[in-house]
Amino acid sequence: MIEMKNVHKEYSNGVIAVDNLSVNIDAGEFVYIVGASGAGKSSFIKMMYREELATKGDVLIEGKNVTDMKQKEVPFLRRNIGVIFQDFKLLPRLTAFENVAFALEVIEESPKKINKRVLEVLEMVGLKSKARFLPNQLSGGEQQRVAIARAIVNNPKVVIADEPTGNLDPETSWEIMRIFEEINTRGTTIVMATHSQEIVNKLRKRVIAMENGQIVRDEHRGEYGYEA
Questions:
Q1: How far apart are CA 48 and CA 164, in angstroms?
Q2: 208 and 192 in contact (C-beta within 8 Å)?
Q3: Which among 55, 86, 126, 209 could disulfide-bond with 166, CB atoms 3.0 to 4.6 Å apart, if both were Cys?
Q4: Residue 26: is it exposed, middle or buried by C-beta count within 10 angstroms (0-12/13-18/19+)?
Q5: Are 123 and 179 in contact (CB under 8 A)?
Q6: Within a 10 A sphere around the Cβ of 124, how many other Cβ atoms?
Q7: CB within 8 A of 130, min separation 6: which ones?
Q8: pLDDT digits over 60-88, tens only?
Q9: Are strands 2-10 and 56-61 parallel, antiparallel or unpaired?
Q10: Where in the numbering of this chain does the ABC transporter domain appear (predicted)?
Q11: For 94, which DSSP code?
Q12: Which residues contact 138 (CB under 8 A, 6 or more apart)?
């Protein structure tokens, strides 16, 4: 599903965020990306959906090289990738329903399909009853659930989450993780950058640990680990 070959990312200020990294992630996997701040986690995952462009090397999603992709092709790439952020990134003047629907409106789905699908995913994340609430009327955990609904409404093959529980209390974090597990059980590949040692150690998945832009450990059913 995701393949990186000798990927290097250097920013204009000379900082090397990813250094000659190669990795494969199979369809249906659930992968944690762990490491200290500045280890290269965010750059690593941003290159998957072309928020950042690799300086050298190849990033392939389902065999398609993201690095060589023309700008006009990027929206089509992102239809198959759901992205979830730590700070939710909801549109403040739109309701929960409208925030989720927006992802379908931009690809010109019919109003009938939009209504049906949005209500389905809001029910899946436990927020159907709050479909008409604005973001500022929702708790942090509820806003994150709206963000998850928006990310999965297109039935993406891959969901990329950057510290999705970073701003949430422990109980809410576990609620969010249960949703991720359900999404993964349905066959969606999940790549999640996290600093949460407790989540990684309790919900044992594949762990890719990064340090100085390189992978220092790659374990199936791994732990957070001291070296990360």
A1: 17
A2: no
A3: 86
A4: exposed
A5: no
A6: 18
A7: 96, 122, 137, 138, 142
A8: 998 889 988 888 888 788 888 999 988 88
A9: antiparallel
A10: 2-228
A11: S
A12: 96, 130, 146
Cβ atoms 91, 136 nearer than 8 A: no
pLDDT digits (tens, 9 = 90+) for 189-201: 999 999 999 999 9
Distances (CA, A) of 217 to 32, 68, 72, 222, 224: 11, 28, 36, 9, 10
- Which residue is associated with the tokens 């996997």? 29
Give DSSP secondary structure letters for 50-77. Answer: TSS--SEEEEEETTEESTT--GGGHHHH
Residue type, 35: G
Q: In Å, how far from its chain's centre is CA 103?
A: 15
Q: What is the mean pLDDT of the chain?
A: 92
Nearest to 31 by CA among 210, 151, 213: 210
* pLDDT tens per residue across span 173-217: 999 999 999 999 999 999 999 999 999 999 999 999 999 999 999
How far is it, in rounded angstroms, from Cα 37 to Cα 35? 7
Q: Which two tokens stand for residue 190?
A: 């999940």
